[in-house]
Amino acid sequence: MKLQFTPQPYQNDAVAAVVGLFHGEGDLARKYTRRTDMLTDNVGNTLPVGVEQIQLNVHAVQRQNRLSLTDNADKLSFCVEMETGTGKTYVYIKTIYELNALYGLTKFVVVVPSIAIREGVKKSFEMTHEHFQNQYNRQPVTLVYLQLRPPWRCARVRPVHRHRGHDHQHRRLP
């Protein structure tokens, strides 16, 4: 059985809002550089459009969606909020294709909180592959990275209360 995907207008609006943040950028694929002086031959996505332009774009998207204007675009951290069951996964996959098609961005990272969600996202990429291939004629390369524990070790510190005459102290927990 082959699934048919019918994008909803609100999904297209969400994609357009994210894509609109980069308005005026131009095709970054032409600005892509290959460096041989590094350990790796490739360089990540660049963002030559200035923070000021991003702020203008953020305000334009906020006005278009009748949202209050913010002044924190310099943090370059944006959030698309959607209710459960409205197609968030579809929206961010389509956003990846749109950002590639319009601006030449080529590297995207999807971070998920659990193995179960990771497997669901992986399946969504597989299920929507043909649908997006027909729309964009682009072949994504996906890499699923499995890290059961973070590569860093967090040191937690908590107070140890007075016991048998010992002073208040802190100790590291494993």
Question: Can you lay out the helices and strands and say which pair or pack?
Answer:
Elements lengths: L8 H12 L30 H14 L23 H16 L11 H22 L19 E5 L8 E5 L1
Antiparallel strand pairs: 1-2
Explained architecture:
By secondary structure, this protein is mainly α. It has one domain (9-173). Helices cover 37% and strands 6% of the residues. It contains four helices and two strands. The chain has helices spanning 9-20, 51-64, 88-103, 115-136, and strands spanning 156-160, 169-173. A two-stranded antiparallel sheet has the order 1-2. Strand 1 (156-160) and strand 2 form a beta hairpin. Helix 3 crosses helix 4 (115-136). The longest helix has 22 residues, at 115-136. It is globular and about 45 Å long. The N and C termini lie far apart (50 Å). The relative contact order is 0.13. Residues 154-163 and 166-174 have low confidence and may be disordered.
Through-space gap between termini: 50 Å
What overall form do the CA principal axes indicate?
globular
Question: Number of domains in the coordinates?
Answer: 1
Largest sheet composition: 2 strands, antiparallel
How many E strands?
Answer: 2
Uncertain ranges:
154-163, 166-174
Average of the residue pLDDT scores? 76
Query: How big a fraction of the residues is strand?
Result: 5-15%
Structural class: mainly alpha
* Spatial order of strands in the largest sheet: 1-2
Oligomerization category of the chains in this entry: single chain
- The radius of gyration computed from the alpha-carbon positions, rounded to a whole number of angstroms, is 22 Å
The helical percent reads: 25-40%
SSE series: HHHHEE
What is the helix tally? 4
